[in-house]
Automatic annotation (TrEMBL):
This is Branched-chain-amino-acid aminotransferase. The modification N6-(pyridoxal phosphate)lysine is found at K162. Keywords: Amino-acid biosynthesis, Aminotransferase, Branched-chain amino acid biosynthesis, Pyridoxal phosphate, Transferase. Coiled coil: none annotated. It is an enzyme of class 2 (transferase). It comes from the Eukaryota. It comes from Salix brachista. Its EC number is 2.6.1.42.
Amino acid sequence: MKCTKGGNFSKGELQRFGNIELSPSAGVLNYGQGLFEGLKAYRKEDGNLLLFRPEENAMRMIMGAERMCMPSPTVEQFVDAVKATVLANKRWVPPPGKGSLYIRPLLMGSGAVLGLAPSPEYTFLIYVSPVGNYFKEGVAPIHLIVEYELHRATPGGTGGVKTIGNYAAVLKAQSAAKARGFSDVLYLDCVQKKYLEEVSSCNIFVVKGNTISTPAIKGTILPGITRKSIIDVARSQGFQVEERLVTVDELLDADEVFCTGTAVVVSPVGSITYKGKRVSYGEEGFGAVSEQLYSVLTKLQMGLIEDKMNWTVELS
Ligand code: PMP
């Protein structure tokens, strides 16, 4: 789907996956005017497909587009395009329990622009791919290292929207961590280097007794849709959930730590290394709390329990 600056997106069309043509001076290539989303489709036992809260992805893209000076598809255009793309690729959705179809909507400044300015033209497209687990550990515990020098987001920057530059910003720290055998990096606030923010591609939760805490959204953390859903699921399961400033030292005292995201779903954290210390939360698998939340969320997403929240969208 295409759109000029200040205009509305045209009706989209389905195309075979392949390279796209871009001007070397496209806004996305030169000035980073790009946003993306990520969501999944699961196959049910009866063969129908389930999307999870696609209108939330649409709303996050609209919010991000405003920050990046881009027009965006409406919620209806976004969700309709996701449905059409998934249905056209139905045969690629793995059987129940064998993975999911990852859906990647992209919005970019595709028009040519030489001096620094918003692009004169925009393209919205969606591609899909079958996926299994995100971390090589599967749903086994992941191992994080706290990063003190490099930051993914700064106050007033674009850390709270899903723009492509945020991912370029984490590549160095993430590659270094992986080379040292860690699964990913845990970022801190860049002012006091004291408060937890998030991991390169997921949000973080800290469990202590019946209380589950997660960093509050304040512009430098991506407002994860899984995060938001897990907060509701946890409350419905009787946990107390706090969205607040969470200090890095609270990691020392936590019973369990877990990450959430579309790709990682709910992943237990086995250890966090910081200031040279390795804090371990159990190497065996899920803790009791993260296991309970993982179980409820995945059953909801796969249509195995009643969807009282009305979060899933069924396609046949
Ligand atoms: N933080 C970052 C930086 C991410 O890239 C993602 C993945 N979209 C998340 C958190 C989790 O967001 P969601 O639950 O919407 O996938």
